[in-house]
Amino acid sequence: MAAHVATARSKARKRALDVLFAAEARGISAGDLLDQQIGEGQVPNNPFTVKIVRGVVAEAERIDALISAFAKDWTLVRMPAVDRNVLRIGVWEILDGDVAAEVAISEATALVTELSTDESPSFVNGVLAAVAKDVAKR
């Protein structure tokens, strides 16, 4: 398997994950944190970061329902925070349709490979593959 090359979009996903993770840790809305960061001049250098965060916030209920439906034996609160938020980004990308589901899954798997537990890549891959299959049927 080839090493993951960090593209501008890959970096934007990681930055979006940082915002989602930090907002959750602080108990505030990711949209509010993003607005605060932008207001303080910490504008993400890739507009894709903003699109991801705003998209995840806008579709939060639907995204969490899909994750919950396909994360067998795992509740959202029981998942590691990194996995939960990477799944949210991956599901949003699958729903958004701007990139192929396979790309969204691969990018999410790469993020958790770098940042989470040894079991996380196969878990995230499995959940997102099931979500993508379900979304494709609709």
Structure description:
With 138 residues, the protein is mainly alpha-helical. It has a single domain (8-136), classed as N-utilizing Substance Protein B Homolog, Chain A. 73% of the residues lie in helices and 0% in strands. The chain has seven helices and no strands. The chain has helices at residues 8-26, 30-39, 47-58, 60-70, 81-96, 101-115, 120-137. The protein is globular and about 40 Å long. It starts with 7 loop residues before the first helix and ends with a helix. The model has no long low-confidence stretch (mean pLDDT 93).
Topology:
Elements: H1 8-26, H2 30-39, H3 47-58, H4 60-70, H5 81-96, H6 101-115, H7 120-137
What does this entry show, briefly?
The protein contains seven helices and no strands. The chain is mainly alpha-helical and 138 residues long. Involved in transcription antitermination. Required for transcription of ribosomal RNA (rRNA) genes. Binds specifically to the boxA antiterminator sequence of the ribosomal RNA (rrn) operons.
Global Rg: 14 Å
Helix run count? 7
Average pLDDT: 93
| Overall 3D form | globular
Number of domains: 1
Residue share in helix: over 70%
The termini sit apart by 32 Å
What name does CATH use for the topology? N-utilizing Substance Protein B Homolog, Chain A
CATH superfamily: NusB-like
Largest sheet: none
Regarding CATH, which class? Mainly Alpha
Please name the defining characteristics of this protein.
138 residues, mainly alpha, N-utilizing Substance Protein B Homolog, Chain A, transcription
